[in-house]
Give the backbone structure.
Amino acid sequence: MLLRTPSDLNRFLEERGDRACVLVPTMGGLHEGHLTLVRLAAAVARERGLAGGAVATVFVNPTQFDQPSDYERYPRGLDDDAALCARAGATAVYAPSAEDVYPPDGSVRVPPIPEVARLPRLEDEHRPGHMEGVCQVVKRLFELVRPAAAVFGEKDWQQLQTVQALVAQEGLGVEIIPAPLIREPDGLAMSSRNRFLTPEQRTVAREVSGALRAGRRETTPGGTERAMREHLAAHGLGIDYAVVRDAETLMPLGEDWAHRPKRALITARLGSVRLLDNAPWPDA
Ligand code: AMP
């Protein structure tokens, strides 16, 4: 069922009940990674007897783009996305207009972004304002859809930690369910933006996950960061960051690093495409 307006959505929620669905927020351009989230949401809703089932949103959120050109070219194909979601078990797809998400009276504020989103060298430094936009849209979608739980992919590791911190900070009362990162057969993390890669770039892009593998052969965080950077540079990939951080706080590792969960995180650049990837470190 495709819901386009707040009254469509409210009619759906009235029939199914408040806090009775599992939400999957997306920006569309859907691929197997997104569909894994939808299937997980549907399974959780079924297990818990939530009448609303899995509800996916498709909304290209203007406030999280730092480059207007990136926003304009972002893939849009609502009919295909809705059909894919239905096949993956979604009960509904809500595709609101920008005016419904952000009424022109300016009443939808940007919440203070949690510490984990503001750390040096990671997303906030390379995409200023991006995490503010993410926090704003997530809070607003939760307010509109009123889900019991929401599924977010581990592909965007810092975003996942940020949303978890936002929910705690703002008392949003939505359970956040992480979903595993889905890759192409050659290791490239699936992403809506991969379609912008030329065939030549596409063969280089797999070296981002190659860098994570190269890093895993090292035994110290410093050695891993060096190995990841060397691997990326050797394949002509630009580097926004290639780091090993505390998996939850995303802080640089301290004295107690051996006893903390850790994550290797890479964002590389290939032409106009940013490629994000991450993995547990050392091996899970
Ligand atoms: P997006 O449409 O790119 O904003 O992503 C919507 C949701 O899908 C986010 O929670 C992402 O982390 C998740 N996602 C995107 N790509 C993948 C992937 N390859 N594997 C797992 N989750 C993903």
About this structure: The chain has a mean pLDDT of 97. Residues 26-27, 33-34, 37, 152-153, 155-156, 179, 181-182, 189-192 surround adenosine monophosphate (CB under 6 Å). The chain has eleven helices and nine strands.
